[in-house]
Design goal:
Blueprint (H helix, E strand, L loop, with lengths): L4 E3 L2 E4 L4 E4 L2 E4 L2 H11 L8 H8 L7 H15 L9 E4 L3 E4 L3 E3 L3 H6 L3 H5 L4 E3 L2 E3 L1 H14 L14 E2 L3 E4 L4 E4 L5 E2 L6 H39 L3 H10 L5 E5 L4 E8 L7 E9 L3 H16 L4 E5 L5 H5 L3 E4 L5 H7 L4 E5 L5 E6 L8 E4 H7 L2 E11 L6 E7 L2 H10 L3 H13 L6 E10 L2 E2 L3 E7 L1
Helix pairs in contact: 1-3, 8-14, 9-13
């Protein structure tokens, strides 16, 4: 799709990467605009992520997260709710579909005021041998130059720079005439030298003005984009700002399991042969690793460095050095310590068969509970997690908690904090609560055959 067009009552101007409505204008990044234009070129058609990535980032290796961020930016500008979309619909396992109306904006006055050049001059093209010369373009160029020299472009003015056209076939409205010669040429007399010098000077100035205009426009668009971004941060930036805005790397405080005193290695010459050697190792649960990889990849994509440390090796001095991200609950002592004073915190019975999240304002009500007997017997259950962002009173540093009762809950928490649709839902709640800095939410997810489903917000608290 080329040129300006409308999506509902929004004016889309791809050439300058802007979206406009009722006098308000938003600037999009070039790739974000390309995604929007490609979707608009296929209205009501489901386009897979692979199709969009191949169309926009051809010959460049990018992951799904880049496309997801572009979709999120588009939805943010349009105020589109992914749960009840009116512009872009997410088709699970299939891709995205533009469901808004798309129409071409046509300026009728432009069509009336600008008749075709060939009809206006009754001349279309001259053919000279195998080459084609656009006489209209030549005439218009001479007219433009002549006007800047205050010279009226009439045949009298051309006597000093006479134009001779050979082997010409002129096509008019009602006639055709041919005059065969060998070449198309322009003879200039000595008197035309001054005229040509002025012409070259004018075109030199024109190029200077053109390049200056391009640079000025580019700087204006770049500056406008920075201003727009500062005024319209993405859902990612809104939640993760306390971590991203710090200079220090983020510390992942992760749950480490039993420390092993041996390791089994394979013989390079014979991989079927295994040898047990003494070593000191700490294990990380692979489900926690899913969340760590998700969040760490997101931080790295935003230029943020990070460190990994097991919870037993983490001390208070480490937590005072920068922002911290705590993964895991009942196998991470730091998570239990930090959430104990929060409204929502973890609890369990004496024989460790029931694990729950408790609301300190309603301690007798504990609907968020996992029965470990059922969990082990069926591997089908409902899991729960706490997601929190706050400033730790002991360190004065930002703290992020992603912790499930079970392993599926931790995966759901990591997905929630890196998925643009889920984060947009959370950002709406943050804005509705007056943009308070500290927050805590309880998530739930259905575990089927050990695999978690989509996360759902059960409760939230802001302070």
């Amino acid at each position: 799709m080329r040129g300006d067009f409308l999506i509902n009552n929004w004016l889309i101007q791809p050439q300058i990467n802007t979206v406009e409505k009722e006098g308000q204008r938003w600037h999009l990044e070039p790739k974000v605009m390309q995604v929007l234009v490609h979707l608009a070129s296929h209205p009501n058609e489901v386009l897979s992520k692979e199709h969009l990535i191949d169309a926009i980032w051809r010959d460049t290796f990018v992951g799904d997260d880049v496309l997801i961020r572009c979709i999120s930016e588009i939805r943010y500008v349009f105020g589109d709710d992914p749960r009840s979309p009116s512009v872009i619909q997410t088709i699970p396992k299939a891709g995205y579909r533009l469901i808004a109306s798309v129409s071409r904006e046509v300026d009728a006055a432009e069509l009336i005021d600008s008749p075709p050049r060939a009809s206006r001059l009754n001349v279309s093209r001259h053919h000279a041998g195998e080459k084609t010369v656009d006489v209209v373009a030549v005439q218009e160029e001479l007219e433009g130059v002549a006007s800047e020299l205050n010279v009226l472009p009439t045949p009298q003015n051309y006597t000093s720079a006479e134009i001779k056209v050979s082997s010409v076939k002129v096509v008019g409205d009602n006639h055709t005439a041919g005059h065969p010669t060998d070449a198309l040429f322009i003879e200039k007399s000595t008197q035309a030298a001054g005229y040509q010098e002025k012409k070259r000077s004018i075109w030199s100035r024109r190029r200077t003005w053109l390049f200056s205009g391009i640079i000025s426009t580019g700087l204006a668009i770049w500056g406008g984009t920075l201003v727009w971004k500062s005024a319209h941060p993405s859902p990612f930036n809104i939640f993760w700002a306390p971590v991203l805005d710090t200079k220090e790397p983020a510390l992942f405080c992760i749950a480490d399991q039993n420390q092993y005193s041996f390791i089994t290695l394979r013989d390079a010459a014979d991989p079927t042969r295994q040898v047990v050697l003494k070593d000191n190792l700490s294990a990380v649960v692979i489900d926690d690793l899913d969340t760590i990889v998700r969040v760490a990849g997101f931080l790295r994509a935003h230029g943020k460095g990070y460190l990994l440390k097991g919870e037993e090796m983490t001390n208070l001095s480490d937590l005072r050095n920068g922002p911290s991200i705590f993964v895991g609950a009942f196998d991470n002592a730091w998570t239990l310590r930090l959430t104990k004073s929060l409204r929502y915190h973890f609890a369990n019975n004496a024989d460790m068969t029931q694990f729950r999240i408790v609301d300190s304002k309603n301690p007798s009500m504990s609907p968020w509970m996992v029965d470990r007997t059922q969990q082990l017997a069926t591997n089908n259950y409902r899991d729960y997690a706490i997601v929190a962002r706050f400033t730790d009173a002991n360190t004065g540093r930002p703290a992020i908690v992603l912790a499930g009762i079970g392993r599926g809950g931790t995966i759901a928490a990591g997905e929630f904090l890196t998925d643009p649709d889920d984060l947009m839902q959370l950002v709406s709640a943050i804005q509705g609560a007056g943009n308070k800095k500290n927050l805590e939410i309880v998530l739930s997810t259905q575990i089927i055959n050990g695999q978690p489903g989509s996360p759902k917000i059960e409760a939230s608290y802001f302070w």
